[in-house]
């Protein structure tokens, strides 16, 4: 084999190995991230189906908040998302990202009241607070997230509590109200800890659901939920037996 | 002027306009090849993507549909498959891979895989069926065209890897495999362009049967009438104009299709 032949074969082999390795690394990536969609995004599955991946929302955002997903991002390639710790959503009143979406994957109706745009209705996610690592819960005075919140005293409010350790200071504890929180992530951006102690998660992941069992008796109309309730008992007959026979006793 | 130079110019110009639009410097083209806004008002959409979205969700907004119809109208009335050679950035990669393949004589290597030319049509059909069954735009989820064009327009380093894969596939595995055997978007446009008016016309009187055109054509099967009869080239032609550039005898030219043939 001539030197030329060897070089040619070498280039071919190396190129194919590189290209194959790249595809392999995409196929076997294991990191999983939870990402936030732009305002007005439909439910994840429908959003994925409707998004045409044009990036018009990305271009429309005046704060460069939105990015298009790449392979490493673990969501459908080319769909928009944002990382609040880097750039949060600044909740523009005219919601340019949602308004420009050509396919309706970002639905203007989801961020409107009475046909008028209302950014406070956006439900990108909900802020979750890690009490263990929030310095306000240590007794150190920090209200960065509270001050950063565009819906201050609604989405995040402060609860005052006596600090028994020092006996002369107060805790100023930030608390999130999911009824108001839009998930803009300005609190996460503002958080002073190394890794944010308050962070936005998609509502589906962050919030629980009570089901039919419990009613707020003190709230007017709360019992309306009982109207279509399924009252049949759902017992698993073997459960008690399994419990006794599991060897724990 | 050589058509090929004009073509490269337009191909790159479109990408540059998108990049400038993305950087908010020049407001001519915003978005990307999937869906865009021309001159700040006219919405354009990729008809194949919109069709997949429609099959997946059965509800597409009017903006997307009108944009898709505009684009579809353009390619099916004006120039068949011109998207492939005048717009699509993957064409730049595959043309380079082909050049590389010829230059370094990889063409003579034993073939690694064989794919029928019709494969892309089956792939197109499969992608539409899967869009319906899985309720998700099937090809858009894996579209290499999408990855490359977004990578260029929005600047994504990961796209280089995919571009390299496409290059390696075309250069070492299957000659012109990506564009003329696999890509369902090309298949879509070649079906859509069946009745397009601007076509390459072959004049048999001028033809010397040198077959130079067949040497440069990326879709050789469309030139099967060369030297045989006066006719317009079939819609699988990507309208790149290479054959016109190379034909020294004026036997091939862009022309408006009419019914004089046969």
UniProtKB/TrEMBL annotation, chain A:
- The residues covered by the 4Fe-4S ferredoxin-type domain are 42-71, 78-111, 172-203
Record-annotated membrane-spanning stretches? none
**Pfam short name (any one):** Fer4_7
InterPro entries assigned: 4Fe4S_Fe-S-bd, 4Fe4S_Fe_S_CS, MauM_NapG, RnfB_subfamily
Q: Which UniProt keywords apply?
A: 4Fe-4S, Electron transport, Iron, Iron-sulfur, Metal-binding, Repeat, Transport
The reply on keyword Nucleotide-binding is: no
Record-level Gene Ontology MF annotations: 4 iron, 4 sulfur cluster binding; metal ion binding
Its name, as the record gives it, is Ferredoxin-type protein NapG
Native source organism of the sequence: Campylobacter blaseri
UniProtKB/TrEMBL annotation, chain B:
Which PROSITE patterns does UniProt cross-reference here?
Answer: 4FE4S_FER_2
| Residue ranges of domain 4Fe-4S ferredoxin-type in the record | 198-227, 228-257
One GO cellular component term, please give it: plasma membrane
Residue ranges annotated as transmembrane are: 12-29, 49-75, 82-101, 121-139, 151-174
| Keyword terms | 4Fe-4S, Electron transport, Iron, Iron-sulfur, Membrane, Metal-binding, Repeat, Transmembrane, Transmembrane helix, Transport
Spell out the Pfam families in the cross-references.
Fer4_10, Fer4_5
Q: Which Gene3D superfamilies match?
A: 3.30.70.20
- Could you give a GO molecular-function term held by this entry? 4 iron, 4 sulfur cluster binding
Please give the InterPro entries that the UniProt record associates with this protein. Answer: 4Fe4S_Fe-S-bd (IPR017896), Electron_Trans/Redox (IPR051684), NapH_MauN (IPR011886)
According to UniProt, the name of this protein is: Quinol dehydrogenase ferredoxin subunit NapH
| Natural source organism | Campylobacter blaseri
